[in-house]
Every structure is written in structure tokens, then in C-alpha cells.
Amino acid sequence: MPIYEYRCQKCGHELEALQKVSDPPLTECPECHAQSLQKQVSAAGFRLKGTGWYETDFKGKAEKKRNLADSGKSSGEKSAGDSSKKAAAES
């Protein structure tokens, strides 16, 4: 079940509610009891990484694959394995 975030438009009280997708949205504020709760937009709390996702496994051979777990590296950084592979290829 997803967690929905709500904010009262009258008093500003914020809360989270664990609800089924099919449940109607909450409307009554638990603080001021006004019918002014509004559902907020929030981001999902998970990340799809690892093998089996489009970015890592399902791109065509012509496209360069990239590892999403390494996406935090800047383009100028190289891993230790890259330099040792290059040295082995040159000798």
C-alpha cells in the first residue's frame, strides 16, 4: 500500500497516511477538523538499479551500455580497473 502525504489548506498541518489505491482521499484535518486536506505530490522512495532494467540490459548492441549504480561518477573519473586494462593492452 502506498503512503500518501496530505496538507491542510486551513491550518497547514501535514500528515502521511497509509492507504489502498482504491481508498477515497482523506478530507478532514485531524488538527482543526476542517474539510480542507489536500493530497500532496511526492517522489517515490525507491530506485530501480541492478540488472534487468532497460538502462542496463535491454538497450541495443549499438548503444553504449552504462551501469546506473556508477552514474554518480563524473565523466573524468576512471576506476582502477580501467588503467590496469589499458596498461595490459599496451604491453
Automatic annotation (TrEMBL):
In terms of Pfam families, this protein maps to: Zn_ribbon_8
Top-level taxon of origin: Bacteria
Q: Where is this region: Disordered?
A: 62-91
- Start and end of every Putative regulatory protein FmdB zinc ribbon domain? 1-42
Q: Which InterPro entries match?
A: Regulatory_FmdB_Zinc_ribbon (IPR013429)
Compositional bias segments (type: Basic and acidic residues): 75-91
Family matches, as PANTHER family = CONSERVED SERINE RICH PROTEIN (PTHR34404:SF2), REGULATORY PROTEIN, FMDB FAMILY (PTHR34404)
NCBIfam families in the cross-refs: CxxC_CxxC_SSSS (TIGR02605)
Q: What is this protein called?
A: Putative regulatory protein FmdB zinc ribbon domain-containing protein
Species whose genome carries this gene: Methylomarinovum tepidoasis
